[in-house]
Every structure is written in C-alpha cells, then in structure tokens.
Amino acid sequence: MCLIAFAYRTHPRYSLVVAANRDEFYRRPTAPAGYWPECPGMLAGRDLEQGGTWLGATRDGRFAALTNYRDPAANRPDVRSRGELVRDYLCGSLPPQVYLEQARAAGGDYNGFNLLAGDAGGLWYYSNLTDTVAAVPPGVHGLSNHLLDTPWPKVTKAKAGLAACLTGPDERLAEGLFALLADDAPAPDASLPDTGVGLAWERTLSPVFIASDDYGTRSSTVVLLGGGGTRFAERSWPAGTERVYTF
The whole model's pTM is what? Predict the structure, then answer.
C-alpha cells in the first residue's frame, strides 16, 4: 500500500473515511478483497506471496492499513513480511494501542513501515522509524511511503481531494473518492522528494495512481466506517473489477 488518505471523525455520518491505493509489482500474486476462511469476520485482500495483507476491516468495526517506508539503502531482504502486521491485528482481539505497542517491541524485525490500527474506541499510528505509538487526532490525514502527513505532492493532493469530497452529498462520496484515486498526473520535478531511487523513479512514483511497465497501482479501496455499518469497495487493476461489501 503506497497511499492512504483518510478523514477521522470529521464527517457527520462516517467516523472514518478511507481512500487508498495499493502499489506493487504486477508479477506479485494477489487475491482480491474477500472474507478469509481462517478469520471469517475479516475482510481484506491477500498477498499470495507472503500471506499478509495491506488493508482490511472486520465485522466488529476494526480497521488496519499499512504502507512501506521508502529507503532502499536500508532494505533488508531476510526480514519478516510487514503484511502480517495488518493480518494479525484484524484476526486478533487486542485493542489497537496495545497491539501497536507489541508491534513496537518487534519493530526491528521488519523493514520500515507505517501502521494504522483502530476500532470504535480510537485510531492509532505507529512507525518503526520513529518508534512512537500515537493516537491519531481528528482531521484529514495522508500517508504514503514516509511518515504520517509528510507533505509529499501526492499526499497533499490526496488530502485536498478528500477534504473536497467530504463536503458533497453522501451518495456521491465513494465515487468521488475513486475519481481521486484514479488521478495519474505526475508531480513537477521540483517538488519531488529524494528517497534514493533516482529522479526517473521519483517521477514515476509521484502520481496518486501509478502505472509503469512492471509496477503500479494494483487496487483502489474506499472504506466508509460508521453511520450504522461499514461499506468496503475495492477496484482491482488493470481489469477494473469492482467488489462492494456492506456490513
């Protein structure tokens, strides 16, 4: 998962509004969002290579999502899969703060990551780059492959787009968020971060929606949590297949 824009406790109906794109190599095998047989109340896609997931929700109101921290010089090939962090939270019953404190204790077992975990009681954030577990304050936030609310161009654009969508009618919210997630315009070179991948790759990775020969946005997900239930919609790319779940 490479971009998550979310509004927490700012919408009159939904306590959490999420618009997220998962970016990955096209060759990496993936299952679309669905309920997991071994954890029936959990709805998420599945990374078929390592067995974890990047974003999901449960029938009892738990939510979690993950992004990688981009630092190729620090990447270690022999560490644990970060996707297990989302899977294990959603399949478990620990309160989010307690779970993230456990993830903090094991943070060195993984390459760099950002993890959001929440339930009806609150939303929490942890990155093993800062080694701090913190409650997420109400507001519109963005998370890509740096820390929470780092003002990368795609994060700034996604947050502004999400804020605009929140002012419209509820029945158009999901479609507006999907339109936001489909924005493939690159950022100007002068505004790009320097994360050690070179200018050409920074440019390729700068849009909200990424497309290249072998890497790009594999799925777009909208989650609306609150108002008496949860709506979870996923569009898989390049086919554009859509799956919608409500509970």
Answer: 0.97
Domain boundaries, the chain: 3-246
Interstrand relation of 14-25 and 215-226 (parallel, antiparallel or unpaired):
antiparallel
- pLDDT tens per residue, range 76-129: 999 999 999 999 999 999 999 999 999 999 999 999 999 999 999 999 999 999
Q: Which of 73, 72, 74, 69 is nearest to 85 (CA)?
A: 69
CB atoms within 10 A of CB 102: 17
Fold of the domain spanning 3-246? Penicillin V Acylase; Chain A (3.60.60)
Q: How far apart are CA 37 and CA 108, in angstroms?
A: 30
Question: Rounded to whole angstroms, how far apart are CA atoms 69 and 150?
Answer: 12
Q: Helix 96-105 vs helix 83-91: angle between axes, to the nearest 10 degrees?
A: 140
**In the block, residue with structure tokens 């297990």:** 84
Task: Report d(CA 26, CA 148) in Å as an integer.
Answer: 26
User: Residue 20: left if φ>0, alpha if ψ -120 to 50, beta else—which one?
Assistant: beta
Work out whether strand 139-143 and strand 132-135 pair parallel, antiparallel, or are unpaired: unpaired
Sign of CA dihedral 52, 57, 58, 62: positive
Residues with Cβ within 8 Å of 167's Cβ and at least 6 positions away in sequence, in order, are none
